[in-house]
Amino acid sequence: MAFVPSDRSAGHAPTPVKIVIAGGFGAGKTTFVAAISEIIPLSTEAAMTSVSVGVDDNTKRQAGKTTTTVALDFGRITLGTDLILYLFGTPGQDRFFFMWDELVRGAIGGVVLVDTRRLEECFPAVDYFESRDLPFIVAVNCFDGVVEHKIEDVREALDVRADVPIVLCDARGRQSVKLALLEVTQHAITRAAAAHSLAAR
Amino acid sequence: MNDRVLADLAGDGDAPPRGGGGNLRAALPLDIPRSASHDELWERDASKPAATDEPEPEQAAAPTPDVVSEALAAYATTPPEPPAATAPAVRPQELGEDGPGRLVRPYAMTGGRTRSTGAEIPLEALVIVTDEGRRRASGLAWEQLAIAELCASPMSVAEVSAHLKVPLGVARVLVGDMAAEGLVEMSGASGSEQAPNDLNLLERVLNGLRAL
Questions:
Q1: Taking a C-beta distance cutoff of 8 angstroms, is the pair A98, A50 a contact?
Q2: From A1, which residue of chain B is nearest by alpha-carbon distance?
Q3: For residue A43, which residues of chain B lie inside 8 Å, CB to CB?
Q4: Which of A195, A199, B59, B128 is buried deepest, with most CB atoms within 10 A?
Q5: Do the Cβ atoms of A45 and B96 come within 8 Å?
Q6: What is the value of pTM for the model shown?
Q7: Where is B173: in which H helix or E strand?
Q8: Distance from CA of A109 to the nearest CA of B (A)
Q9: What per-residue confidence (pLDDT) applies to B116?
Q10: Mean pLDDT of chain A
Q11: Which residue of B has its CA nearest to A195?
């Protein structure tokens, strides 16, 4: 094994950043990550605290905190020599409203992938990102390139703030995914710049 | 007869050390006398390399009556393990679903701990082997060696977990321990809290994405 110069320090190590990809089950999160990741998306088991919201089809409601082991899928994009971007998909079980605190901590932003045929499945993600004040965009996944709803209709249905960008996206297309990631990063910059100028006043 | 005693010892109704149920017990080597403290037992399991020249198999094949009676006596007087003195209880699902097929139970590598000494390491924190880690490579336990080799180039904790096929919690503990020993160093292990507001960093991400 070759030795590296001993003056190598953490200061020269790349900085990791992450974007969280959320959405309902089957909205295309895994496809989205795979479309742009430089590695075949990996999976890891993680324990997460969740609140069961009792959406089982019987009427008895179960509420309470539990810890569940979930599979986290993620991809990686090296941005130059000093930056590595990770894309983490949120766990897809819609039976749980996950406390994604750990996933979201330190994230630069979030993408909520929406399948307009099952719009309601992304509500928890929108609620969660809003509650954590995480900059996010909504990406309407156009399966087979079909746009079934107008963007403004989606905005109204999701009831997201006017400044939350909504884009059309083909989760299978690298370019399309790249544009969505650019959009969320730009949105994060806009938000951060606004916060800075507010603080400077 | 002796085998039967050992089997009885191993299969008694006592709660398994880390709550793993049947799978866990199946994964434990039955040749270790029950008199060994649990920690010792897990320690041994954890530090056991692929090839070992410990004479345990022979012991199991022909334990002397003394060993058995000692084990029995020790077992009878050994108080039950204080609950979760060093480790929070590990839920069975965290141990993975693949049963006894795994050679070493994931949390056996960590001595049953689910927390490292350091602060909680973010999923995306990058791990890089240090010169110290390279130098000591030949003396490392296999899981540490695997991490040292994996992290020759920067690799996130999540990736370490995925490549080693261990739960994230285990990867965190292993990496945290190695960092404490100076075998690896980490980038983004603490400062990511402020990342969302770091305009300079965000601009770099934007430019990096554009250049893709």
A1: yes
A2: B134
A3: 162
A4: B128
A5: yes
A6: 0.68
A7: helix B168-180
A8: 8
A9: 55
A10: 81
A11: B197
